[in-house]
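Response to reviewer comment R2.3. The reviewers asked that we include at least one raw input/output pair. We reproduce the pair for Transcriptional regulator with XRE-family HTH domain here without editing.
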Amino acid sequence: MHIETTKDLRENRIVDGSPTGAGPIVLRMLLGVRLRRLREEKNVSLEEAGETIRASRSKISRLELGRTGFKQRDVADLLTRYGLTDEAERATLLEMARQASRRGWWQPYGDLVPSWLDSYLGLEQAAAVIRAYEVQLVPELLQTEDYARAAIRLAHQDATNTERERRVELRMLRQQILHRRNAPRLWAVIDEAALRRPIGGTAVMRAQLEHLIAATELSHVTVQVMPFSAGGHAACGGPITILRMPEQQLPDVVCLRHHTGAVCPDRPGDVQRYWHIMNQLVIQAEPATGTRDILNRVIAELPDL
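Raw output as returned:
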């Protein structure tokens, strides 16, 4: 397992707040992992650590899990309690604490982002691997602007046009991660139903299918189709997304979206179960080598404009 060094953190993790940066969520998680290791190396209990910064045991636990922001003063006091005297590493960890408290690049859209999505966006932009299964719609990271606009209009029928357009902007900004230098590996399995449901009309759907064909040409993007002929399968209940971070000490994240929000099961056994389901989908779906032919066939079967 690779252990983050001060040099790693200084050169690779302290980045800006753009859609291509590591983001405050992951910085909090990384800092929490480091603080937990330092505490355990010194055999300091959660209660003792809490006394150091005049906090509860549960707050220390939340800090170490990256579920709450850090105050630089608290981090400095904890580092002293844990006996960390290396000035370079202290400076790096304190800078991480500062940047981990900053706002994510998506905060201008904060009124549109529920708490679960706020955390998810921070993890998505930092992920090394994104695995997705979609039933009803094309995956959001692979949607065209017009398709996204039509899908958002259906999901937010009571919203104003201005709000809908801001949601479209946010979705398009998220897609920048696929075109950065260190782009994540995206592996998507799309149900045939999503390809044959003409969201936005024939012209919009044709452009969306052509966009998917273009996406398959990217070396870091794999698209498979789950055909109707496959029958039932373990994921027929709804969409699944799994995020894997580049840092091996950070856990995989499972996200199960529904109409009004999402559930993110984090028990190791549950996460492993969804990995098993995702791997089953890959086996049951049509091979990726045939995706372009399938998409071209669906395009050919669209009604004439």
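The chain has 13 helices and six strands. Confidence is low (pLDDT under 50) at residues 1-18. Further pairs are available on request from the corresponding author.
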